[in-house]
Design a protein that fits this description.
Blueprint lengths: L20 E11 L4 E4 L3 E7 L2 E6 L3 E4 H5 L17 E9 L3 E6 L4 E5 L2 E17 L2 H9 L4 E3 H23 L10 H16 L4 E12 L2 H33 L5 H27 L6 H10 L31
Antiparallel strand pairs: 1-6, 1-10, 2-5, 3-4, 3-6, 7-9, 8-9, 9-11
Helix pairs in contact: 3-4, 5-6
């Protein structure tokens, strides 16, 4: 991320692995006359001398140690620096970018659930964003004992407290234990607030926290699938009835599977109504042809197919629908 150099042969910089590192401390090396500090995009450089902050360089570019740096340092600007003796100093390079980190619970979290004595084990997965927000806090809390601090260090600290935070915020925001995804946003916002408060003690802010998914045991998934299937059956029956009524009101039907189902049910219903109507007109004493057929099946034998008196087709009825002659005794 930055660099001091004599004709760039003694450069002070940090340009490797910046994406996963929040800060890197360049230390215990000599800065000689003609050295340059190189700051790349997405970096700040904090000049330290004897553990004290001498200056902060936030603009990218190349800085000469004599003309650009020493005159602006609070202590060293009056220092007789002829570079006969190399200067030993430290430069703390800060990654100013917001870093995206994936997270996941290491072990299942047992949430209290009615009917499950040991609780219901779930896992959760998602992402969070972090960045350095307080330079001085980072120097006081971390830079004194660490040469680098990475997203893995942040992730380790967050995972250590995540189980308890998940249980706490699920209890506050989780309305349905078996469908936590519906409340994932509110749960995540609560966790983000708590994590940000904790990490700011180190000068690092948590700028976003999301829960992408909750993972349930296989037994719970099968129960959910079964319940969803049963619900779909009931919903489909209600849907087809409503679609049939709507189609009749509009005088047309839609396309696809739903339309086919509606047409089939409408056809069956209309066909049955026509049969009932015909039977009622021919013989008011019989409710419908289906009832006559049932009576024939339960009787000893079927009658003639045509009335011997008037020749009307009988369709297996006990009496002729035209002249009323008894066909089956």
């Amino acid at each position: 991320m930055g660099l001091f150099s004599n004709q760039f042969s003694n450069a002070v910089e940090w340009n490797e692995g910046r994406e996963g590192v929040l800060f890197y401390k360049w230390q215990n090396q000599e800065i000689k006359k003609g050295s340059r500090l190189i700051i790349r995009p997405g970096q700040d450089a904090i000049f330290l001398y004897n553990g004290v902050v001498e200056g902060i360089f936030e603009d990218e570019g190349s800085y000469d140690i004599e003309s650009d740096i020493i005159p602006f340092l609070t202590t060293l600007k009056s220092f007789k620096f002829g570079f006969n003796t190399p200067l030993r100093a430290e430069v703390l390079f800060i990654n100013t970018k917001e870093l995206l980190v994936k997270w996941g619970t290491k072990n299942a979290i047992n949430l209290p659930a009615q009917g499950l004595p040991g609780g219901m084990p779930i896992r959760a997965f998602g992402t969070f964003n972090c960045k350095i927000v307080e330079h001085q806090v980072v120097i006081d809390k971390l830079a004194g004992i660490r040469q680098t601090y990475t997203v893995d260090d942040v992730k380790e600290r967050i995972i250590a407290s995540l189980d308890q935070l998940l249980m706490s915020w699920i209890a506050k925001e989780g309305r349905d234990m078996f469908n936590l995804q519906a409340d994932a946003r509110n749960i995540a916002k609560g966790i983000e607030s708590d994590l940000d408060m904790d990490m700011r003690k180190l000068g690092i802010g948590i700028t976003d926290f999301t829960i992408e998914s909750f993972s349930y045991p296989e037994e719970i998934k099968k129960m959910q699938e079964k319940a969803a299937a049963q619900s779909m059956v009931g919903d489909m029956n209600r849907y087809t009835h409503m679609a049939a009524a709507d189609s009749m009101g509009k005088g047309h039907t839609g396309g696809g599977v739903a339309s086919d189902m509606v047409n089939l049910q409408m056809g069956m219903a209309l066909g049955q109504q026509m049969v009932n109507q015909m039977n009622q007109n021919q013989n008011p004493g019989m409710p419908n042809m289906a009832a006559g057929a049932a009576a024939n099946i339960s009787g000893a034998a079927a009658g003639p197919k045509f009335c011997p008196d008037c020749g009307t087709p009988t369709s297996g009825t006990k009496f002729c629908g035209n002249c009323g002659r008894q066909l089956i005794s």
